[in-house]
Write a structure and sequence with these properties.
The protein has 509 residues and is of the alpha+beta class. The chain has helices at residues 6-11, 200-213, 237-250, 303-316, 373-391, 483-489, 498-501; strands spanning 34-41, 45-50, 53-54, 64-65, 70-77, 85-94, 100-109, 122-126, 136-143, 161-165, 168-169, 174-184, 218-223, 228-230, 257-263, 276-278, 293-297, 346-348, 353-355, 360-361, 369-370, 403-409, 415-421, 428-435, 441-451, 455-461, 471-476, 493-495. The strands form seven sheets. A seven-stranded antiparallel beta sheet has the order 23-22-26-25-24-27-28. It binds zinc ion. Residues 311, 315, 321 line the site of zinc ion (ZN).
Length: 509
């Protein structure tokens, strides 16, 4: 990007940027031309000026974030009797320290501005380091040198310029995730080809796909060196998700890290034909760290796998499906744009292209997809919150002060028992009872969830030693949030697997 400080330009004739330095010297566009709209687009276009008026940060559809580059477009209106000629547009950005930078574009104007066409707007790219809180913008339209000012009608009664605070939100937005290659060893209809490989180019692809569609300044991707060996069918992806939940626990992963299992399945990836599956945390809390897991069919590099990856990570950020095809399971009911479209332009940093408002939201099953204000408003606070945990440098839980027994009940009757550090989710809806070694009745709250993949998760808070009972009896509380689920589990007796019974988290008994 050509940039030049105005103060520098005033003294250096060699400066290459054409200058229209301000009201006193520049001549505003005459003949009734007016600034119509200005949008800053970091992935979802945000109007900072619309219908000739400044749009304040609280009136915008979504938020601009710091340290992420923005594609800027400005449109104009002209009267019918417009005389076609070249017009210059200057974008000025002023930083909090008073530093101002300016860049000029020229365009032959013979019709009104129109964002649907490449030549229908003046455009600029603002690099990430200039997108900072407390900065402000200004766009103004000028006659070019050589214009016969004396012959042109005077400016419109409203001068062809606009400006105001940029409204960039302070705070970092970053996604950190671990890709776990899954080594599928199973006798299926397809040949087992081992875990998918992630060389530098493929990791870059994952980075690009995730970063272009999420409100982030950076993405940190680590490939787990040791693959997860999976010896059962891949038809039931929900079981793989639980294995990933347990793995992130064994790795002592911080609560802000997402785990993504990449599988090249030897049998079909899912009974429902999905290319991937993910947990959907009810809230962006530390207690739900175990739900920041997803799995996807990544047998081939390229677009479909990368789209699956992005969609599944969307779920782990709390996003549910957006209805477009109509086959999307459990869609949200408040999506604001018809047919699941994004409804706004969006700048694609990877392809350096503008995505049209007719693309579908990436949480639908339609194609092609992009993201709109609705999606960004859902994931941005989640990303910021998780990043704040990271930036506060919270120590990982080497010695958890709470221990939770996790029980996964699958639709096929099987179950998985595992233990994680940290508290159980706050949404306890049942009680578990058992007798301890001295014969006393113990009663503890159980948080019960319906999870993706027709799995029921039970979270039982254990004592400090993590003592696991031999059997657990479940009781419904009177005011269980999911009464049907509680009723179906009422009185159920669960027998702890042998290998877990003596386990005390490696602590002294
Ligand atoms: Zn989905």
């Amino acid at each position: 990007m050509r940039r030049c400080l105005l103060a520098l330009c005033a003294t250096l004739p060699a400066c290459t940027v054409e200058r229209y330095p301000g009201d006193e010297i520049g001549v505003y566009a005459r003949g009734g031309m007016a600034l119509d709209s200005v949008s800053f687009d970091q992935g979802v276009a945000v109007d900072v000026f619309a219908n000739g008026q400044f749009v304040g940060p609280s009136s915008r559809p979504t938020t601009l974030i710091q340290n992420r580059g923005a594609y800027v477009r400005a449109t104009w209106s002209i009267p019918d009797e417009w005389e076609p000629r070249e017009i210059a547009a200057a974008l000025e950005l002023t930083q909090v320290d008073g530093t101002t930078s300016s860049e000029v574009r020229r365009r032959w104007i013979d019709g009104p501005g129109d964002l649907r066409y490449p030549d229908g707007a003046f455009d600029w790219f603002v690099p990430e380091e200039m997108m900072s809180p407390a900065s402000s913008w200004r766009v103004a339209l000028y006659e070019t040198e050589g214009a016969r000012i004396d012959l042109l009608p005077p400016p419109a009664h409203v001068l062809p310029r606009g400006g105001g605070p940029l409204g960039v939100l302070p705070g970092r937005h970053e996604i950190e995730l671990v890709v776990v290659p899954i080594d599928h060893q199973f006798s299926g209809p397809m040949e087992c080809e081992g875990p998918p490989e992630f060389g530098e180019a493929r990791v870059q692809e994952l980075y690009d796909y995730l970063a272009r569609i999420n409100p982030v300044e950076d993405v940190v991707i680590t490939i787990r060196e040791e693959p997860l060996v999976w010896t059962e069918s891949a038809a039931n992806l929900t079981k793989i998700l639980d294995a990933l939940s347990e793995l992130r626990e064994l790795d002592n992963a911080p609560p802000y890290v997402y785990y993504f299992g990449a599988i090249d399945p030897c049998d079909w990836g899912s009974t429902a034909g999905f290319a991937g599956l993910a947990r959907v945390p009810d809230a962006p809390t530390r207690e739900y760290a175990w739900k920041r897991v997803a799995v996807g069919d990544m047998r081939r590099p390229g677009h479909p796998s990368n789209e699956t990856f992005v969609h599944e990570i969307g779920h782990t950020q709390g996003r549910r499906h957006v209805s477009c095809k109509g086959t999307e399971g459990n869609p949200v009911s408040d999506y604001p744009v018809e047919l699941g479209k994004t409804g706004s332009f969006g700048f694609d940093h990877l392809r350096w292209a503008i995505q049209p408002p007719t693309h579908a939201d990436y949480m639908s099953y339609c194609d092609p997809t992009w993201v709109g204000a609705y999606g960004w408003n859902q994931v941005r606070p989640v990303i910021q919150r998780l990043t704040s945990w990271k930036d506060r440098d919270e120590p990982s839980r080497a010695t958890p002060d709470r221990v939770t027994l996790m029980i996964s009940l699958y639709a096929d009757g099987a179950s998985k028992w595992w233990i994680r550090g940290g508290s159980a989710s706050a949404s306890a809806s049942m009680r578990a009872t058992w007798y301890d070694d001295s014969g006393d009745l113990v009663a503890r709250p159980v948080a019960v969830h319906h999870s993706t993949g027709e799995t029921t998760h039970l979270e039982v808070a254990l004592d400090d030693l993590g003592t696991v009972p031999r059997t657990i009896t479940l009781h419904a509380d009177d005011a269980a949030p999911d009464a049907a689920l509680a009723t179906s589990l009422e009185g159920r007796v669960l027998h702890t697997p042998l290998d877990l019974r003596e386990r005390r988290l490696g602590r002294a008994p």
